[in-house]
Design goal:
There is one protein chain. Helix content is 33%, strand content 14%. It contains 13 helices and 17 strands. The chain has an 8-stranded parallel beta barrel with strand order 1-2-3-4-5-8-11-14, surrounded by 4 helices. A 3-stranded antiparallel β-sheet has the order 16-15-17. Helix 5 crosses helix 6 and helix 12 packs across helix 13. It is globular and about 65 Å long. It starts with a helix and ends with a strand.
Amino acid sequence: MATHKLSTCFLIFLVLLQSLSSAESQAFIGVNYGQVADNLPPPAETVKLIQSTSIQKVRLYGADPAIIKALANTGIGIVIGASNGDIPALAADPNFAGQWVNSNILAYYPASKIIVVNVGNEVVTSGDQNLIPQLLPAMQNVQNALNAASLGGRIKVSTVHAMSILSQSDPPSSGLFSPVFGDTLKALLQFHKENGSPLMINPYPFFAYQSDPRPETLAFCLFQPNAGRVDSGNGIKYMNMFDAQVDAVHSALNAWGFKEIQIVVAETGWPYKGDPNEVGPSMDNAKAYNGNLINHLRSMVGTPLMPGISVDTYIFALYDEDLKPGPGSERSFGLFKPDLSTTYDVGLSKNAQTPTAPVTPVSPAPTTPTTPVSPVSPAPTKPTTPVTPVTPAPKPTGSATWCMPKPGTPDSELQANLDYACGMTGIDCSAIQAGGLCFEPNTVASHAAYAMNILYQTAGRNPWNCDFSQTALLTSTNPSYNGCTYPGGNL
């Protein structure tokens, strides 16, 4: 009997040891390695840098041979990408897909631990009606090529989505995919289900804060002490925006019958500087977000709807990319500088599993509220008068917003937005057709503005419904003129 008890205790000890070892390996912490820059260190130096950290996975946007070779025999998981420009050829020609797999995977595998192939980046929400229908056939041909090489079960095929694939996320338990992308998304999700591949998304609490720059929203986004926000659908109190956004996607999967599909966060991060007119970028905020996110992942608490497991998360980004277009924040997400020094310390070094400067610890989210508060969307859309952080943040009401093109957006991009919006099922663009009340002025800019706003109002009025590849912005100023009325909904 005593021997039996000792054996049982020893087995329990082994299980606990294995569990601790799994947690310490931190395979759920990855990083994005972008290359839109002219000052990056050689791949070999970068790999040594990564090996000095607890980062276990690297996501590439392409399939750079030098980087893939440099990562050989390190045990670091590698996510490679087929560019959006490769999709038509991959979709049209299985032989091309086979050659692509041979050149970019078989030439390096298994020494280089390639784990996922992303076919395209944010294609579904790109508005490119020529490209979108070709995404699934391209993924299928890559999958078939991997299957032919007996790698179908080892290397997964996916694609990356912006959060704008959701039409509803308030509260997280009511998350829904946008009907605008319905048929396309359902076919993609069926592909994921059949092949055991993950749904990869890009949640950015940073953009949510930009849409609602209140002090309590910042605390909610940075995993800092806050009153929490209660999901009116199930009574769960959310203590941070990251969990709320990820759970909204989980709810959307569940609503369509795809609950078993794994969610992977392909990108999330916070810029440490930006242009003077940008809300949110700062060294302190970036350090708090990324540091607290890493602590949250290490805690293995999970999200309220997916407890006890940390979602694989790729932090954006390893380095700044000095050649990227757009606002200053786009070039200021790097965790490390080109000289391999840290931009700020978030505790990634293997020698220090916690940041040198303390960040707020994350506690498991309680499942019932202590006091009732109003539901709040994972991505608030409009600032209101600041209130004290201890007051629960109610959802703003009574204010209308419109989605407009950003000033200076080229007509070519506006025309693409116009074609995209008016090509969506359920979008009524008759007002900007000849004879319509909003036909004049007969310009691309005017027509695109109307169409973009119609899509925003129809798709759910979330900030991500007014993105259009970052060529749009939300405004509280009614753009209606003369007899032309722009629909505008309350938040």
